[in-house]
Amino acid sequence: EWDEKEIARVLRDWGEENWAVQIARVICDRRKKQRIETTGQLVDIIDAAIPKKFRAKDGSHPARRTFQALRIAVNDELTPLEPALNDLADLLNPGGRLCVITFHSLEDRIVKNAFRTMADPCICPKNMPICVCGRKPTVKLVSRKPITASPEELAANPRSRSASLRVVEKLDV
Q1: Partners of 166 in the beta sheet?
Q2: Cβ contacts of residue 137 below 8 Å, gap of 6+?
Q3: Which of 50, 75, 100 marks a domain boundary?
Q4: Same domain, 91 and 38
Q5: Of 34, 42, 135, 157, which is the most buried if we count CB atoms within 10 A?
Q6: Is the dihedral of CA 52, 53, 59, 65 positive or negative?
Q7: H/E element, 92
Q8: What secondary structure letter does DSSP report for 53?
Q9: What is the CATH number of the domain that holds 10?
Q10: Which of 68, 63, 167 shows the shortest CA–CA distance to 118?
Q11: Rounded to the nearest 5°, which phi and psi values hold at 117?
């Protein structure tokens, strides 16, 4: 059973929840009175922790980030992502492309940073005039920014709202 600090850390780190401390406090207060046994109870707790005037204007549910954070933490979803990306890139033939669709900013940040490191692996200090580490890029970024759903796609498929596609191409190294 996680304590208040651990719950807040999970919500902040894995859910990017601005109200992590408040939600964690309310969860722990309620747990002292009564065991939380259903997702409905948890939704009510989260609802009570976030003031209505500070809720997202895009219509997303206030509990979305909390449930995302709990799922990611419990399932350890993000830990294997970066090693998998490196392994997949190693398996590509020159000219082969690795395409990754992410559905939230944490995943996207990991993919973006992994792809950037593969495309520019130099670890020399930025003030060095030339590279002396000898590390060579293994891929090139096909696009700097992620590819996102068009307005037409969003109209036909609203769940594509959070999808981002990033692509790299294997270099002949």
Answers
A1: 100
A2: 118, 119, 120, 121, 171, 173
A3: 75
A4: no
A5: 42
A6: negative
A7: none
A8: G
A9: 1.10.150.170
A10: 167
A11: -65, -40
